[in-house]
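Q: I'm building a small set of examples for a reading group on sequence design. Run inverse folding on the following structure and report the sequence directly after it, with nothing in between.
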């Protein structure tokens, strides 16, 4: 199923705990490109995101937002620069990082139920050979209820509305129970009900001390919903400023 996996290996080689007092994300002069690319998709980007904050990643389509999130999640290797996640190189604490791709990157025709999709969020902690336990199913039930999907648990994922599909992906991310959430356009084309539910969920995550980096076009909510904002254009970081002072 396209892009519904968590970066490997699972729990054997990526069990580093966040180093106390370190930022959630710290990158210096990071560039990256896709095979065959003419120019860098992101070019010499430097910034820091403190633990427990919610940061907006802003920029027009094609500016490099998705590329940056994939680099931070370990799905795309940088061509240069240094990346630290909770004080460790990318890949040392995958279990503490959850990447939520754009909904359009998912194969919604895949024959899997909502419940089973959400359950895959626990696989990072289980590895290949351990079966989910009662606690994992309870976490799935809790995530489905929180996101208003409990009555759709056994429905095939392609039968959901756009907003319900986005909430299902977010429910899967919650079951992962990461410390850092990298979310690529979660508000894109979803209904008002879903927007409200997701904002409430993001509030809960922040109050729980989680860190969120959210790619979004919604500038009208920057001052109220975020602690900081990154502005990226043509692969370059053009501004980092506190949202309440911008």
């Amino acid at each position: 199923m396209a892009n519904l996996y968590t970066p490997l290996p699972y729990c054997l080689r990526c069990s580093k705990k966040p180093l106390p007092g370190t930022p959630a994300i710290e990158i210096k002069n990071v560039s990256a490109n896709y095979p065959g690319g003419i120019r860098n998709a992101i070019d010499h980007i430097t910034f820091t995101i403190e633990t427990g904050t919610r940061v907006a990643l802003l920029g027009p389509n094609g500016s490099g937002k998705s590329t940056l999130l994939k680099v931070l999640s370990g799905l795309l290797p940088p061509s240069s620069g240094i990346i630290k996640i909770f004080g460790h190189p990318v890949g040392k604490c995958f279990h503490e990082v959850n990447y939520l791709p754009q909904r359009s990157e998912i194969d919604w025709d895949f024959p899997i139920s909502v419940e089973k999709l959400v359950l895959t969020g626990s696989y990072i902690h289980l590895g290949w050979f351990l079966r989910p336990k009662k606690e994992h199913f309870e976490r799935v039930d809790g995530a489905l209820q929180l996101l208003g999907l409990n009555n759709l648990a056994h429905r095939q994922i392609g039968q959901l509305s756009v907003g319900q599909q986005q909430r299902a992906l977010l429910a899967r991310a919650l079951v992962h129970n990461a410390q850092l959430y990298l979310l690529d356009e979660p508000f894109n084309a979803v209904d008002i009900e879903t927007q409200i539910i997701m904002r409430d969920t993001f509030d809960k995550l922040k109050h729980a001390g989680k860190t969120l980096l959210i790619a979004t076009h919604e500038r009208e909510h920057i001052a109220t919903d975020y602690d900081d904002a990154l502005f990226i254009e043509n692969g370059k970081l053009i501004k980092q400023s506190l949202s309440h002072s911008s």
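The domain at 25-245 is CATH 3.40.50.300 (Rossmann fold).
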